[in-house]
Amino acid sequence: MRASLSVLVAMALFAGPVKADPFKPGFKQQVELGQKAAAQIRNEEKIVKESDPRVQLMRKVAQKLTAHIPENEIKKHPYKWSFDLVDSKEVNAFALPGGPIFFYTGLFEKFSTVDELAAVLGHEMTHIREEHWANAYADQQKRNLGITAVLMIIRANQDMVNIASISNEVLLSLPYSRGQESKADRSGFRLMVDAGYNPKGMLDLFDTLAKAGGGGGTPEFLRTHPADKSRKNEAQKLIDAESKKGTKFPATTPMPKF
Ligand SMILES: [Zn+2]
User: Fold this and answer.
1) What is 31-53 written as a DSSP string?
2) How many Cβ atoms from other residues are within 10 Å of residue 250's Cβ?
3) Residue 63: which pLDDT band, with cuts at 50, 70 and 90?
4) Distance 104 CA to ligand 1 centre (A)
5) How far apart are the first and last CA of the chain?
6) Torsion sign over Cα 178, 181, 183, 186
7) pLDDT tens, position by position, 10-54
8) Cα–ligand 1 centroid distance for 121 (angstroms)
9) Sequence ranges of the domains in the chain
10) What is the pTM for the complete model shown?
11) How far is the CA of 127 from the centre of ligand 1 (A)?
């Protein structure tokens, strides 16, 4: 059902002069929504101060990763990156549209290598770069409306995005598809390797997450990012393919003691 709807919508999009998906918030709107939600989170949560060495390490790693995002992509999508650390036991990290990324100390403290940190950052950055939230939002709107209404709207060339009506709740709770998650792993891997991190950090991350989930109560990050065998196998395949190309990975870097 979902596939046939997508096909119909795609056909309608290609048939007429309409180019953009009328249900998908544009990049500027994504930035606006992301900034608004980030401001609220900074008001409500205990944010670790900028001078903290953990925040500085996170931002240093993030900067090394963003330095490898192609110039032409940035021209099209001028990201407003920000990297905040929330003082909370919650084992979580998430991205908001347009650039804000929030990390929880509960997850940060579990890393044994800097490469694991780079793996999560690269993954979350991909959700932003690929506009995963905006695409998930557009899909949800279309599913709610049904095919007939969606096609009428597309034919009428109506813009259906009203960002004032999009709550922070919708911004934070919309689930990503399995396909989006595996794309985030693949592009995150690329970014890590290009920035000089050891992609073994991805495998270690899955082990760290699985361990974190062992002692009762599933961490938030695991609920949205199952550290199952297939995800780990996919990461291993990426590493093997890259090694076959002759890429040499640097040693993993142990996390400093804070
Ligand atoms: Zn994800």
Assistant:
1) HHHHHHHHHHHHHHS-BPPTTSH
2) 9
3) very high
4) 15
5) 51
6) negative
7) 655 555 554 578 899 999 999 999 999 999 999 999 999 999 999
8) 10
9) 2-244
10) 0.88
11) 7
